[in-house]
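A favour, since you know our C-alpha cells better than I do. What I am after is a single protein written out in full by you. Could you add the entry underneath, on a fresh line?


***
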Amino acid sequence: MKFRAIFIRSLFLTGLAAAALYAQSSPLIMRHADNLNVSDKSSHLLLNGKVFFTHDSITFRTDRAVWDRGLDLVQCDGGFLFTHPSGFIKAQSGTYRKRIQVATAAGDVVAKDSAGSYAMFGQFLTYDRVKEYLTIPDRPLLHQYEKHKDGTIDTVSIKAQYMTYDKKNDFAQAFRNVVATQKGYTVTCDTGYFDKRHSWIALKGHPRCVMDGYILTGDSMYLVLDIEKRTLRSALVIRNAHGTQHEKGTPGKPDQYTEAFGDTLYAEFKDDKPVKLYVNLNAHGLFYEDDLEAYKNTMDGNRLDLAFLQGKLSNAVVAGDAQSTYYYVKNDRTLSGKNESAGDTIHITFNDSKVKHLKLSGTSTLSSGRYFDLEKQHIQGKLKAQIPATTAKPQKADSTKTTGRPGAKGLKILKKGKTK
C-alpha cells in the first residue's frame, strides 16, 4: 500500500511537471505580417502591417513589431490589442514576454473583462497572465460594474496615483490621493482596499466618507456594503473618529445636526439612514439646530450610544462619568432655559430630535441636575441696564440654583440621587 501511494504521488508530480514544461515550451507564433525583415546576427525580426501573434489562448495585434526570438519578447509600437480568455487590453504600444507570460501596455490604456464586470484605464499597465493580476502605476482609474436583477448597473469608480487589481479575487488596492465614488457616497483616503467579492472597503490615511447627509472621518475606516440594495450597511472608524449627521429641515423647521466624537465609532445603516451609533472612549456628542448654532446640546462620557428612528435621533445613553447640557427652545424659537445633568449614566429620550425624558443614575458619581432660567436672566439683565449703577442693588441669581422643576418638558429631580 505504501509503494502504491508513492507511485501515485510520483505520477501526480510528473503530470504537474509535464504541464509546467508544456506551458514553458508552447511556442509563440507569428501568424501574419505584411512585411518581414530578419536579422540573423541579433535574432530580431522586424514586422510591419497587420501583425498578428498567438501564444496558447492569447492573441495580440499591432501594425509594427520587433520580435526578439532569443528572449521571446515582442515589442509593439503601432497600436496594441491584447486579447485573452477573460478580456482584452488596448493601448498605443505594448510588449509581451512569453517566458513569464507578462504583457505591458502604454498610452491611453483600456483593459476590460469579457463578463463586463470591470474596466481599467491609465497610461501604463502590467498584466500577469498566470496570476490574472493587473498593475497601473500612472493615472489609474478603475470601474467596477454591478448588474442587478432589474437590469440596472451600478458603477464603483476608483481613482488614485497607483493601483493594482487581482482579477481572480475581485480585489483592488489603491494608493495616494484615492477617491472612490458610488451612487450615494464618496470616499477619499491615502490608501484603500476594495474587496468586491465580500463587499467591504478598508481605508487608511485620513479617510473621509461622505453620504447624503452624513460625514465620517478618522485615522482608519472599515465599510461594509449591501450590494443588492446598493447602500452602506455599516461603518467602523478607529482613532480620532468623528461622525456628523445633517437632517434637512422643512418649512418652519430649521436644519438639525448631530455629531459624535471619540476614539472608536461604529454605525449601522438601513436604506442609507443611520439606525444606531456608538462611540467608545472619550465620547462626546452634540446636537443643535442651525438657527441656534451657538447653543449646542452636549453629551459627554466614556461611552455614547445613539439610536435613530427614520434617520432622526430617538434615544441616547451616556455612560461613565456622564454629563449633559440641554437648551430648551420655545415654539417661537426663543431660549427658555438650560438643563445641566451629571451621573454615572444618563438616559435621554427624544421626540422629533428634542429631549422628551431624561433619567440619571449614579453610585460612584452622585446624580445631580441644575436648571437655569434664561428668560429670567434676560429680564434681570434688562432691569440692571435701566437702573443707574449708583442705585443698583445686588440681586440673588436664583436661576442657578438646583430646582425641582428643571424646565424642559417638566424634568424632575428624584430622591436618592436619581433624576428623571
